[in-house]
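Title: Comparing notes on inverse folding

I've been comparing how different people in this forum approach sequence design from structure. To keep things fair, I'm posting one structure and asking everyone to reply with a full sequence. Here's the target:
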């Protein structure tokens, strides 16, 4: 159980660590960032830009879309797998893990904010606020959707 909890905590922390990686080349000259060469927002990073593992393959648009879909499916499957094992933990352990993840996220946001200039901090705060609102709306929608499914049965 302890090994499972540690593995789940590591899996939950990986996105935070990946986002905290510095820009620029890594210690061996390779691009830092995600597996595909960066955050995936275009530019010099990601599958469409320079430096990604697929950039040298001269992929067609259809091939890029298929690969994007496969990688997205893999991400969702991994997320579902983590949730499956998290659901097996006792409620107290689940709550403790969620609290620890939330504390780590808040610390990372505070650390990011400390790096920014005052005008960037205001913009960052607005972005975080909008993301929080969108997540709340999404949870409301999911609850409504589940309620509608129950009524239909």
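Reply #1:
Here's my take.
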């Amino acid at each position: 159980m302890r090994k499972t909890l540690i593995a789940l905590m590591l899996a939950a922390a990986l996105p935070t660590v990946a986002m905290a990686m510095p820009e620029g080349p890594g210690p061996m000259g390779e691009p830092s960032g995600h597996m595909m060469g960066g955050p995936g927002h275009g530019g010099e990073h990601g599958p469409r830009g320079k430096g990604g593992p697929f950039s040298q393959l001269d992929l067609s648009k259809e091939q890029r879309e298929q690969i994007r879909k496969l990688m997205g499916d893999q991400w969702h499957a991994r997320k579902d797998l983590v949730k499956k094992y998290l659901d097996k933990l006792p409620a107290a352990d689940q709550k403790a893990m969620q609290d620890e993840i939330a504390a780590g996220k808040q610390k990372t946001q505070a650390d990011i904010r400390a790096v920014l200039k005052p005008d960037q901090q205001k913009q960052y705060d607005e972005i975080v606020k909008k993301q929080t609102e969108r997540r709340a709306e999404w949870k409301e929608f999911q609850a409504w959707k589940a309620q509608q499914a129950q009524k239909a049965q």
